[in-house]
Amino acid sequence: MIVTGLWASGIIPKFIAKIAATSYLKNNFPKKQTDEFLRLCMTYLENKGYEVYVGNTRYSYNNATQNVQPNELLIAFKNDK
After folding, report:
1. Are 38 and 45 in contact (CB under 8 A)?
2. Residue 53: which H helix or E strand, with range?
């Protein structure tokens, strides 16, 4: 997948705001497959040192606190710690 290729190649090394495939997933995959895809993405990103947020989760980034929006399936930030 394109997104995985970008992660692996380091083109998106510090900040991932959204998974660009949101509408594609919603239109082409049943909820069970979408949930499995998100679980796999979360595991992959967490193993690469990202902080991962899904659903209506609150998160802080650059001194701002926000919620993951309904149109965002996943938010991930590179953990520099």
Report:
1. no
2. strand 50-54
pTM, to two decimals? 0.61
Contact 56, 66 (CB under 8 A): no
The answer, yes or no, to whether residue 44 has pLDDT greater than 90, is yes
In the chain, domain spans: 2-6+16-68
Residue 23: other Cβ atoms inside 10 A: 9
Read off the tokens for 15.
């900040």
Long-range interactions of 51-58: CB distance < 8 A, separation 24+: 51/76, 51/77, 51/79, 52/76
